[in-house]
Amino acid sequence: MCTTCGCGETGEHSHTHDHGHDHGHEHPHTHDNLPAHSHEDAARLVRIERDILGKNDALAAANRARLEERGIFALNFVSSPGSGKTELLVRTLTELAPRHAIGVIEGDQQTSRDADRIRATGVKAVQINTGKGCHLDAHMVGHALDELAPAPGGLVFIENVGNLVCPSAFDLGEAHKVVVLSVTEGDDKPLKYPDMFLASDLMLINKSDLLPYVSFDLAACMANALQVNPALQILTLSARTGEGMAAWLAWVEARAAHLAKAAGVAEAVPAAAAPVAAAAAAPVAAE
Questions:
Q1: Minimum mean pLDDT among 37-51, 102-116, 189-203: which range?
Q2: Is 109 exposed, middle or buried (0-12, 13-18, 19+ CB in 10 A)?
Q3: How large is the C-alpha radius of gyration of the chain?
Q4: Pairing outcome for strands 12-16 and 22-26
Q5: In terms of pLDDT, which residue wins out, 285 or 71?
Q6: Average pLDDT of every residue of the chain
Q7: Which residue, 81, 134, 235, 241, has most beta carbons within 10 Å?
Q8: Residues 120, 87: contact at Cβ < 8 Å?
Q9: 8 Å CB contact between 127 and 117
Q10: Is the pLDDT of residue 129 over 50?
């Protein structure tokens, strides 16, 4: 947990946005990085962890209510560094942005490189730099949602900091956690990092185009993941070649449509597409 991993020592994080300046926001919590020298110290660390997670869960519930009320479908992408989730996100945006209003929240310890890649697709992105922090939390995401101002019936994709440990414990208010695992990683990752796979609703096995060149047992990986989480859904794809992308996009769109319908709002389309959609939906005047 974060009371021992050292994240958040500075107590601050920053946002960088499309308009090119940063905002610093205070964390709603601090992470003490003190070793447990006694039973009393150990008990204190447990209390701190519970307090941190309790506050985060309350903020996540507020984020979730806010999103669901407006029919906004939010996904929290989690993975280890190098899984290809930014490339996957860029490919996903390229496919979905022409017909959906989408906003992206990018989490990294430093730089806005990933947010810049997202903005290059024409999609609005808010960058959160966590400094020494190893995960996003619900407080950060709440501020980012204020800045992003997603349209009712739209989509929000949250790319978490690359880490298979701490993000598993921090609910952000998303509809689903999506864990991305690359075939260049070990097929035993679900067994080594079970909390992340247990917390996720979908596993995307990425870089399938490299399967002929790596010693990755696809069937074993799936079995390991289902051993940890029997309800986990699994899709295999390649963000580079597009293999398997259709099933992934269908998964997103079906659930986004269901959420928008439940909220009683129309699915949001991008501003450029709105006049076309409105014209198509308008009744034809009798001559």
A1: 37-51
A2: middle
A3: 20
A4: antiparallel
A5: 71
A6: 86
A7: 134
A8: no
A9: no
A10: yes
* Confidence label for 31 from pLDDT (cuts 50, 70 and 90): very low
Q: 3-class secondary structure for the chain?
A: CHHHHCCCCCCEEEEECCCCCEEEEECCCCCCCCCCCCHHHHHHHHHHHHHHHHHHHHHHHHHHHHHHHCCCEEEEEEECCCCCHHHHHHHHHHHHCCCCCEEEEEEECCCCHHHHHHHCCCCEEEEEECCCCCCCCHHHHHHHHHHHCCCCCCEEEEECCCCCCHHHHCCCCCCEEEEEEECCCCCCHHHHCHHHHHHCCEEEEECHHHHHHCCCCHHHHHHHHHHHCCCCEEEECCCCCCCCHHHHHHHHHHHHHHHHHHHCCCCCCCHHHHHHHHHHHCCCCCC
Tokens 């479908």, located at residue: 73
Phi-psi region of 6 (alpha: psi -120 to 50; beta: other; left: phi over 0): left
Counting residues of the chain whose pLDDT is more than 90, the rounded percentage is: 74
Among 232, 227, 230, 168, smallest CA distance to 204 is for 232
Phi then psi for residue 214, to 5 deg, are -130, 155
Residue 184: CB atoms within 10 Å = 14
Residue 159: what pLDDT?
97
The predicted model gives 218-238 an average pLDDT of 98
Confidence at 50, pLDDT banded by 50, 70, 90: confident
Task: Write the burial class of residue 85 (CB in 10 Å: 0-12 exposed, 13-18 middle, 19+ buried).
Answer: buried
CA distance 222 to 189: 10
Q: What is the pLDDT of residues 179-216, one digit of tens each?
A: 999 999 999 999 999 999 999 999 999 999 999 999 99
**Where are the domains positioned within the chain?**
36-262
